Automatic annotation (TrEMBL):
<feature type="transmembrane region" description="Helical">
    <location>
        <begin position="134"/>
        <end position="155"/>
    </location>
</feature>
<feature type="transmembrane region" description="Helical">
    <location>
        <begin position="47"/>
        <end position="66"/>
    </location>
</feature>
<feature type="transmembrane region" description="Helical">
    <location>
        <begin position="78"/>
        <end position="101"/>
    </location>
</feature>
<dbReference type="InterPro" id="IPR020846">
    <property type="entry name" value="MFS_dom"/>
</dbReference>
<feature type="transmembrane region" description="Helical">
    <location>
        <begin position="223"/>
        <end position="244"/>
    </location>
</feature>
<protein>
    <submittedName>
        <fullName>MFS transporter</fullName>
    </submittedName>
</protein>
<dbReference type="InterPro" id="IPR011701">
    <property type="entry name" value="MFS"/>
</dbReference>
<feature type="domain" description="Major facilitator superfamily (MFS) profile">
    <location>
        <begin position="11"/>
        <end position="417"/>
    </location>
</feature>
<feature type="transmembrane region" description="Helical">
    <location>
        <begin position="392"/>
        <end position="412"/>
    </location>
</feature>
<keyword id="KW-0812">Transmembrane</keyword>
<dbReference type="InterPro" id="IPR036259">
    <property type="entry name" value="MFS_trans_sf"/>
</dbReference>
<dbReference type="InterPro" id="IPR050382">
    <property type="entry name" value="MFS_Na/Anion_cotransporter"/>
</dbReference>
<keyword id="KW-0813">Transport</keyword>
<dbReference type="Pfam" id="PF07690">
    <property type="entry name" value="MFS_1"/>
</dbReference>
<keyword id="KW-0472">Membrane</keyword>
<feature type="transmembrane region" description="Helical">
    <location>
        <begin position="161"/>
        <end position="184"/>
    </location>
</feature>
<feature type="transmembrane region" description="Helical">
    <location>
        <begin position="264"/>
        <end position="285"/>
    </location>
</feature>
Length: 430
């Protein structure tokens, strides 16, 4: 197996930090939900609109700009995206209406949409195939681990200096990282005299790039559709965690102080361990078996079903400790599909088209994140009580995760191709 260049780990470090900033910028809105809703006098359905608005442009930019990662300079693309993220953080403290708040979330979503596809494309250049699991897992480890560390710190900052301070702090951090990326970031290994791994793997796939028009039919394959649906379950829960968990813990469960910080940060901390642990396990299984179903699909599918059970149990137990436990386990287990999906797609599609595949995957699966906050807001506002509204919403979440997780686990099977596989198919898929 090809060796991984030492500088690849420097690039991975930047991707991890970028993922941390990306995710924390996303979840800040949930951490400030209670004071911001009070200041702007927002109803639950209006807050659901705020949470949903982030994904309106996120979806389109994932598909449209994500595909550009196959051909554009990835260093420059990441720099421009980072500039959008930090600019929104500096602007948000000055918003004065629901309209402006929604507008900032839309712009942030547009800037963050292409990030997963961009990270996937960069990973394909810098890491060999047998390292993809740990590479993608490390990036997602950064998103969840960074959120676990940042959440209690930002909650303390919000309590002392108000909700605006959290956005300013993240804007400053984003600016520092952007400057370092411009100095030390590299687009590909050729810049330091080494070949890209997407060039070294020509023996396993034809690397001809195809247009979106030629690529589109492959997105209707059973494997891609059910992988996107399973990913949609994870994004549904991700948006609920970001938008509604803090409000649920403080307003319905009446958590405060250290208990609130634990309830908000523990799910991210556990998810970080899941991303790293299952990615390592998946890579080990892949090296042992060479079977993507045994190494990736079985893990992601079984964890999605277990996550669905945890969401259900979290709404039925009365013990505070058990409720925190199940709400801690559920997100981390469901996010396993997000760390393994890029590696799964890398097996289905050639490296030169992975930006399109990953961009389409993020666009389709993350569309559930646009719906989930609205569903929760509607049920919370119009149920007999807010508590019962949360209960119904979590029950719907659990059922959907179980159904689509099962479809993914039992239906996604890599096709066994013969040597007579057509040239046109090889241009898109392996």
């Amino acid at each position: 197996m090809p060796r991984t260049p030492k500088y690849s780990w420097v690039i991975l470090l930047f991707l991890v930090i970028s993922g941390m900033i990306n995710q924390v910028d996303k979840i800040i809105i949930g951490l400030v939900s209670v004071p911001l809703m009070e200041e702007f006098n927002l109803s639950p359905s209006q807050w659901g609109l705020v949470g949903s608005s982030f994904f309106w442009f996120f979806i389109f930019s994932s598909a449209l700009l994500g595909g550009m990662a196959d051909s554009k300079n990835t260093k420059k693309m990441l720099a421009w995206l980072s500039l959008i993220w930090l600019t929104v953080q500096f602007v948000t403290p000055f918003v004065s209406s629901l309209f402006l708040l929604v507008l900032t979330r839309m712009i942030l979503g547009a800037g963050e949409g292409p990030a997963p596809a961009l990270s996937t494309a960069i990973m394909g250049k810098w890491f060999p195939k047998h390292r993809h699991g740990i590479g993608f897992g490390a990036v997602l480890l950064g998103t969840t681990g960074g959120s676990a560390i940042a959440s209690p710190l930002l909650i303390s900052l919000i309590d002392q200096y108000g909700w605006r301070s959290a956005f300013i702090a993240m804007g400053i951090i984003g600016l520092i990282v952007l400057v370092l990326w411009m100095i030390f970031g590299k687009d590909n290994p050729q810049e330091i005299g080494l070949p890209s791994f997407d060039q070294e793997e020509q023996h396993s796939s034809t690397l001809s790039k195809v247009s979106w028009r030629e690529f589109l039919p492959y997105l209707f394959s059973k494997n891609f559709v059910f992988t996107a649906l399973c990913g949609g379950c994870a994004y549904w829960l991700l948006s609920v965690q970001a938008v509604w968990f803090p409000a649920y813990f403080s307003e319905i469960q009446h958590f405060s102080g250290q208990t609130l910080k634990l309830a908000v940060s523990l799910p991210f901390l556990f998810a970080a361990f899941c991303q790293l642990g299952f990615s390592l396990l998946s890579d080990w299984l892949y090296r042992k078996t060479g079977d993507i179903r045994k190494a990736r699909i079985n893990l992601a599918g079984s964890m999605m079903l277990l996550s669905a059970v945890c969401v259900y149990l979290a709404t039925t137990v009365n013990s505070t400790d058990l409720k925190i436990l199940f709400f801690t386990l559920a997100p981390g287990l469901s996010y396993v599909i997000l760390s393994l999906a890029p590696a799964i797609l890398m097996d289905f599609f050639s490296p030169k088209n992975i930006g399109k595949a990953q961009g389409a995957f993020i666009a389709l699966s993350s569309s559930t994140s646009m719906i989930a906050p609205l569903v929760f807001g509607y049920l919370i506002q119009y149920a007999a009580t807010e508590a019962s509204g949360y209960h119904y919403a979590f029950q719907i979440t659990s059922l959907g995760m179980f159904v689509f997780g099962s479809l993914f686990w039992f239906s996604v099977r890599p096709e066994k191709r013969s040597h007579s596989t057509t040239k046109a198919e090889e241009q898109v898929g392996v």
